[in-house]
């Protein structure tokens, strides 16, 4: 979700946003906000390639499994154990940073879909917002990425009802 929301989305909470000019800095800032550390040095070329990966993965949030399958093949997603102690990853041991991230992220999405939880992968339904999220509500009823989009949508619906 982080890759898609940071590098691919062009409308956020009713406003048009341009993709970041410095993708590397945007990703590093996003990881810092999420209190996660980058294990490797991220180059400008890696960041540009990750923007392409984000575009590849975005359709999975709307149920397009064919595109997700193509991404899994393209980035050689294979389960393997890495390191000491071994850690399960879904990329080849020699994969570069971008292919590793793409394979791991694509496999995570495929696993969510494969266990029947694909309906929890959502895109915000508010007009003018393309953010994606994982719906954690008990009955999978979440429609918006956050309260600001929910409030905007409800206010718009209220005003429309008042006019008629």
From TrEMBL:
InterPro entries for the chain: ABATE (IPR010852), ABATE_dom_sf (IPR023286), Znf_CGNR (IPR021005)
Organism: Nonomuraea maritima
Zinc finger CGNR domain: residues covered: 120-162
Protein's recorded name: CGNR zinc finger domain-containing protein
């Amino acid at each position: 979700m982080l890759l898609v929301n940071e590098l691919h989305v062009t409308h956020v909470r009713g406003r048009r946003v341009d993709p970041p000019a410095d993708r590397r800095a945007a990703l590093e800032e996003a990881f810092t906000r999420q209190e996660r550390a980058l294990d490797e040095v991220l180059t400008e070329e890696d960041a540009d390639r990750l923007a392409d990966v984000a575009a590849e993965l975005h359709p999975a949030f709307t149920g397009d499994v064919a595109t997700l399958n193509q991404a899994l093949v393209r980035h050689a997603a294979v389960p393997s154990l890495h390191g000491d102690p071994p850690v399960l990853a879904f990329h080849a041991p020699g994969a570069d940073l971008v292919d590793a991230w793409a394979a791991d992220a694509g496999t995570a999405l495929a696993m969510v879909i494969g266990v029947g939880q694909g309906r929890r992968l959502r895109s915000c339904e508010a007009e003018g917002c393309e953010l994606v999220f994982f719906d954690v509500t008990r009955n999978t009823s979440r429609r918006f990425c956050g309260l600001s989009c929910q409030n905007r949508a409800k206010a718009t619906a209220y005003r429309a009802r008042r006019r008629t």
